[in-house]
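Anyone have tokens for Serine hydrolase domain-containing protein? Sequence:
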Amino acid sequence: MQVIHSQHLEAHIDSVLVNVFKDKNGPGGVFLVAKNGKLNYRKAFGKSNIELDVDMVPDNVFQIGSMTKQFTAIAIMMLEEQGKLNVNDVVSKFIPDYPNGNNITLHHLLTHTSGIKDFTKMKSIMSIAKEDLTPKELVDFFKNEPVEFKSGEKFEYNNSGYVVLGYIIELVSGNTYEDFIETNIFEKLAMNNSRYASDRAIVKKRAYGYHNRGAFTNKMYVSLSIPYASGSLMSTVDDMLKWQEAINNNLLVSRNTKDKVFSKNKLNNGEQFTYGYGWHLKDIDGVPTREHGGSVFGFKSMSVYVPSLDIYVIGFSNCDCNSPTQVTRDITSLVIKNFK
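Reply: yep, here.
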């Protein structure tokens, strides 16, 4: 593809997104592109609330699903810098009765190499889906399941690992996960529209979540204590840009710690895999990226950061029928070509 001149970049991104969000009266999305921390693109599509016929706006608040794992990982690294834990610590140091806990480290949990059962894949998950569980109760739900493989033997994406990390954050800090993230990250970075998700609280400019099962329906109710530290945060694209800038500028953790977060890791057999701590480490058109998506009932999210060009692209959708994963990567590809 030929190089796209900056003045045409907006039109090219528009054409990509209009093709995805064809139904102006259906659920929509919000997308943002930034270069060197400055906005290049920020637009909303579709409806934030179908029933009330409310248009989406760029500062709508979305559930971000597994992008929450970025915050959990950085929280763990902040505690490591404070000397309160080490990523090489074993789980049993914090949860003495955790089965096989002497063989599972925080590093294994962070990198999805622990081998513990992913509770979201358990057939019995629906028995707790609507229950408000404490972190200990949630960990107890899956901790006695047989391990899938020996720790460090393979990479297999795992929500349970990040639930255990959230619980450890609470045990070590003396605060709830929600309070720790709110105080040490959201307040510090003035991420004023980010929060632990709630279906009960009044959240200004909330985007409502939908499914499409042949027709649009309101999202299924699931207690937000269940995704917990693996997927229960809410944010806006603007706040997420603040988050990315804070990481770039080492406002939360040092450069050395950041290098650890964004290093590819190896399995027991020496084979490298493309996940750091809370981010996939991939590439687009041969250019290295840090990226992660999220999926939680009624919502999908995706962000891509290109370190070499300081490009950040993020997309939110308020229907799990419209995954922004590929379109966000496609937009990133366009932007890379524009600035390379």
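DSSP finds ten helices and 15 strands in the chain.
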